[in-house]
Amino acid sequence: MPTAARLRRALPRITARRAVAAAAVTALLAGLVTWAAWPDRSTVTGADARLTVRSGPSGTEPVDLDTRFYLPRGASAARPVPAVLLAHGFGGTKDSVRSDAENLANRGYAVLTWTARGFGRSGGQIHLDSPDYEVRDASRLLDWLAARPEVRRDAAGDPRVGVVGGSYGGALALLLAAQDPRVDAIVPMITWNDLARSFLPESAGRPVTDGVFKKGWAGVFFGGDSGVTAGGPAGAGAAGGPPGAAATADPSCGRFAQDVCQAYLKLATTGRADPAAVALLRRSSPAPVLGRIKAPTLLVQGEADTLFPLSEADANARGIAAAGTPVRVAWYTGGHDGGAGPQNDQDRVNYLTAQWLDHYVKGTGATPGTGFTWSRLAGFDALDRGLVATGYSTDRYPGLTGSASRPVGLAGPAQRIANPPGGNPAAISALPGLGGLSSAAGAAGGLGGALSGTDLPGQHARFESAPLAEAVDVAGEPTVSIRAASPTGEAVLFVKLYDVDPKGVATLPEGLVAPVRLTGLPTDLAAARPVTVTLPAIVRRIEAGHRLRIAVATSDQAYATPAQPAVYAVALGGDAVTLPTLSGTPIATPAVVWRWVLAALVAALLLGLAGTVLFLRLRSRRRADSVHPEYASVPLVVRGLRKEYADGFVAVSRVDFEVHPGQVVGLLGPNGAGKTTTLRVLMGLTRPTAGELYVFGHRLVPGSPVLSRIGALVEGPGFLPHLSGVENLRAYWRATGRPLADAHLDEALRIAGLGDSVRRRVRTYSHGMRQRLAIAQAMLGLPEVLVLDEPTDGLDPPQIAEMRRVLQRYATGGRAVLVSSHLLAEVEQTCTHAVVVNKGRVVASGPVADIVGDSPSVRFDVSDPAAARAVLDRMAGVRVLPDGDGALVVDTNGTARSEVVAELVRAGVGVDRVVPRRRLEDAFLALVGENSRGSGDR
Q1: Rounded to whole angstroms, how far apart are CA atoms 402 and 131?
Q2: 3-class DSSP state of 678
Q3: How far apart (Å, rounded) are the C-alpha atoms in residues 359 and 367?
Q4: Strand extents, DSSP E, 440-581
Q5: Which pLDDT value is given to residue 619?
Q6: What positions does the domain ABC transporter occupy (predicted)?
Q7: In the prediction, which pLDDT does 36 show?
Q8: What is the per-residue pLDDT across 73-121, written as a single tens digit (0 to 9) for each?
Q9: Backbone angles phi, psi at 128, to 5 degrees
Q10: Would you give the DSSP letter of residue 584?
C-alpha cells in the first residue's frame, strides 16, 4: 500500500473533525448573536442561491458557492440597511451559522452566509484561506452585496459591511480586511496570526522551521477533511472538481488543493517543516498583512485553546494597532477546547460584538473604545449549577506580560529523563477539541480538582515552589529558565506549569504546554547555558497554600517527537518562574439590553415603586447617619423593640437593654422567648415593627455602615465546603472590601484553636470545628461589639472553658460582648450582666450577681445523706433538689434553716456544714417558671 494511502487510513475522518474543531467554532458563533431576547423569526427572510464567483491567481477561475441571504423586515431600496458577511469555521457550512445570521438580521443587518469552497455543496478545493482563493471569493461576495438594492452603500460598488467569523472564518475576516478596503469593521474570533507558528510552535525563540509539529491538531485540521464532505455538489468528483475527476484525484488529499495536501503529508511524515511548507502556511496567515488593515477590529480569543492560544490574538492586536487602526481585545473562558464558555461569558462577548458592529457599521452608539476585557471561571450558578465566569476590564490592553510580574521561587535538583523510542508511550496533556484533561476534571469537580499523573515516570523532571502565602491572579505568559544536556546535541522538550493544591492534586491549566527544540546542546549539564522558555498565556487564580510545579517532559501525544531514544539531563536555569499578574475592575455580566422593553403601565408602576423605595431609604439613611449624643459612647442600646409578623404573630412585644464597654452580657430566656428575633433585628436581618437600636449612637438599620463595627455568629455558621478554613476566612474578609491586614487573621485563628486543621477543607470538619471557625470569623477585624448565638454549641468542656476566658479577655479595651445561650451555668461564670427575656419581654436585667440574689436553696453536708433525705421528705414545704453534684441541696421554701438543722439532729443525723446555694438557674426558674414557654420565637 502506498505511504500516502496508509497515512490517509490513519487520519481522522471528517466526522471526528467536526466533533472537535467545528464544534467549538459553531458553539461560539451560536452564542455570538443570540443576544436578541425573543427573536421573531418571521421578521427575517432568507433566500438560498448558488453564486458563481471568479477568483484564483488570475481572478478568472469560476467556482460555485452555496449561499443564503437574510434580510430584516422593512429593508428595501428605499430603506437600505448595513450588511454583515458571516463566515463559518473549518468544516462547517452556511447552515452552521444559521441562527447567528437570523439574529443579526433581527438587529437590522442584511446578512450573507456561504459555504466556503471545498466544503458542503460549494465547489472548488480547500486552499486554507488563500488570498487568491477563499479571500478573493469573499471579495466577490462584497461585489454581490454592493449590487443589492437593500444594502446601504458608502459609494458605488462599496457596501456598508462588517465581517464576522470564528477560527477559519476569523482568519478570513482579517485577510479580507487587509485585501479589500471596503470592509468597515471586523470581529475575528479564536483565530490565528501565523498558521505556520500555530502548527509548529517553539517556545524558546527559535525559527519556525525548528518548531515542534502539532500533529494532533494538524491531523484533525488537515486530515479530517481529506475526503469528500457529506452533501457535496451533485456530480462532483472526489476532489470536489468536475465530473470524472475522481479517477485522477489523489484519495489521500480529498478536497484539499494538491500543494496544501502535499505539504501536510510531508510534515506529518517527517515532523519537520521545510521553507516551502512554511511559506505556504504563511500565505494563509494574517501576520504579513496586518499593517494593511484599516477596518476597526474587535479580537475575541479563547483562554481554553490549545490550537490557537492567546498569543495569536496578541500578535494580531499589536500588528493592527501599529498601523493606527482601532483595536480592542477580549479574552473569554471558551475556545477550541472550551466551546462558547459559560452563558454569562457569552453574554459579555455578545455585548461587545453588538456594540462594535452597531457603532462602526450601523453608525449608532458611542465609540466602544479600546479597553481590554477578560474573564476567569468563578464557580457554579446557584440555580442551574452551570459554570459562571467573572469578567474584568482595564482601560488599556496590557499584552501578555500583564500589568506587573511576580517571581515565585523554584527548587529541585538536576534530573535525567528519557525520550522513549518512537515517541511511545507519550504523556497526554490535551486532546484536540477536548482540552486539558486536568483542567476539564478541575471544572467538573469544583474548579479546583484535577487529574494528575499525565506525565510518565522517568520521562519528566519536576521543580516546585513552596506554598504560596497569598493568592496570585495570573494573566499572561509565565517564563522560566532551564538548562539541558543531550548525547545527540539536540532535544525536544515540553515545559508545563502546574497548579498543585495542598492535597498534591496537580492541574495543568487548559492542557497548555510549551514545546521547545534545543540544538547545540553539550553532553555535560555543567556546560549547558540557560534557555528562557515562554510558557503559553493563561488566566488563572493560584490560591494561597497552593504550590507551582514546572514539569519538563520528553514526550507529548499532541506533538511529534524524535523517534530515536535518548537520555537527557535537565536542570533549572534560574531560581524562579515569573508570573504576569493583572488586576482590573470586575464587570457585571452584560444583560440582554432589550429585555427591559415592557408595557408602559408596568414601567410606570416600577418607576413609582422605585421612587417610593428610594425615598424610604434616603429617609432611613438620614436617620442612620445621625448620632444620638446620649448613646455615643455605648456599644449597644435597644429601646422599645417590637417585632410583629404579617399574620399577627408577636415574636417580641417590648425589649429594652444596654451593653456597655467591658461588659459580657448574657441574653437568656426559654425557647420561643424572642432571643433569636432580637438578634436578627440587631444584625439587620429583619426589620423591627417598632423600636430602635443604636451602636455607638448610630441608629441601626439593614445595610447601615455601622454594622461593620459588629462581629456576629447568628443562626449557625455557613462556609464553602470545598475551601479550607483559612481560605473561608480570607474569602469572607475580602467580601467586606477591607484590607487583609485589618482582619487580624492570625489572632482569630489562635482563638479558633484549630491548629493545622485550618488548611483542611471545611467539608472534613466536625460540628465543633465549624463552630470554632465561625467564632474566629466573627472576631475578624476585632469588632467593637461581638454578638454570639450559642457560641459553645458543639464544643467539649475544655473548649467551653477556653471560650469563657476568650470572651472575658475580649470585653476589654472598650469592646463589648452579647451572648445568647441556654447553658445557664456557663453564663453565670462568663457574663458580667444578664438580660432575661420571657414571652417577648424583658423580665430582669442587670449584673448577674444582682439577678441571682439570695437563693432559697441550701447545701447540707451531713453524716448520713440517705437518712437525712428521709427526714427532709417528711417536712412540709421542704424539697430536696435533684442534681446536687453528690451533695444534699434543699429548697427550704421559707422554713428557717435552724429548724431544718434541728430536725436532722433530733433524728440522729450529723450536720457538718450548711451553705446557702446561689445559682443563676434558680433565679431564672423563679423569673420565668419551670414550665414557662415563650411566644414561639421564629
Answers
A1: 34
A2: helix
A3: 6
A4: 460-464, 472-476, 479-485, 490-500, 506-507, 514-519, 531-534, 538-542, 547-553, 566-581
A5: 54
A6: 636-864
A7: 39
A8: 999 999 999 999 999 999 899 999 998 899 899 999 999 999 999 999 9
A9: 60, 60
A10: -
pLDDT score recorded for residue 935: 46
> What's the confidence (pLDDT) of residue 606?
67
> Under DSSP, is residue 121 helix (H, G, I), strand (E, B) or coil?
coil
DSSP letter for each residue of 866-913:
HHHHHHHHTSTT-EEPS--TTSEEEE-TT--HHHHHHHHHHTT--EEE
User: What does the pLDDT read at residue 918?
Assistant: 61
C-alpha 305/C-alpha 534 separation (Å) is: 17
**What beta strand segments (E) does 33-79 contain?**
44-55, 61-72
pLDDT at site 76: 94
Residues of the chain with confidence (pLDDT) below 70: 1-42, 223-252, 379-386, 433-453, 588-606, 608, 610-626, 702-703, 715-717, 752, 813, 853-856, 883-886, 915-919, 929-938
Please give the helix or strand (H or E) that residue 844 lies within, else none.
strand 841-847
What is the C-alpha separation between 901 and 891, in angstroms, rounded?
A: 13
Q: How many CA atoms lie within 13 A of 697 on its CB side?
A: 9
Strand partners, 787: 712, 818
Q: Are strands 698-699 and 710-713 parallel, antiparallel or unpaired?
A: unpaired
- Hey, what's the cell of 221? 485540521
User: What does DSSP assign to residue 713?
Assistant: E
DSSP character for 383? T
Rounded-to-integer distance, Cα 250 and Cα 245, Å: 10
CA distance 393 to 287: 27
Amino acid at site 194: D
- Give the Cβ contact number of residue 737 at 10 Å: 7
d(CA 752, CA 778): 11
| Cell numbers 474543531: residue | 21
Q: Is the alpha carbon torsion for 104, 109, 115, 117 positive or negative?
A: negative
Beta carbons within 8 Å of 187's beta carbon, 6+ residues apart? 162, 163, 164, 165, 173, 297, 298, 300, 353, 356, 357
Q: Which residues of 834-870 are buried (b: 16+ CB within 10 A; e: fewer)?
A: bbbbbbbbbbbbeebeebbeebebbbbebeebeebee
| Global confidence as pTM | 0.61
Report in angstroms the alpha-carbon separations of 415 from 75, 463, 554: 69, 10, 12
Separation of alpha carbons 273 and 261, rounded Å:
14
What CA–CA distances, in Å, run from 928 to 670, 769, 793, 844?
8, 33, 23, 10
Distance of CA 739 to the CA centre of its chain: 22
Question: What is the Cα–Cα distance from 421 to 435, expressed in whole angstroms?
Answer: 26
pLDDT at 877: 78
C-alpha of 90 from chain center: 30
Cα–Cα distance for residue pair 762/764, rounded to 1 Å: 5
Which residues are paired to 539 by β-bridges?
475
Residues near 13 by Cβ (< 8 Å), separated by ≥ 6? 224, 227
Closest to 627 measured CA to CA, from 708, 712, 700: 700
Q: Is the peptide bond before 502 cis (omega within 30 degrees of 0)?
A: no
3-class secondary-structure state, position 265: helix
As a whole number of Å, the end-to-end CA separation of the chain is: 83
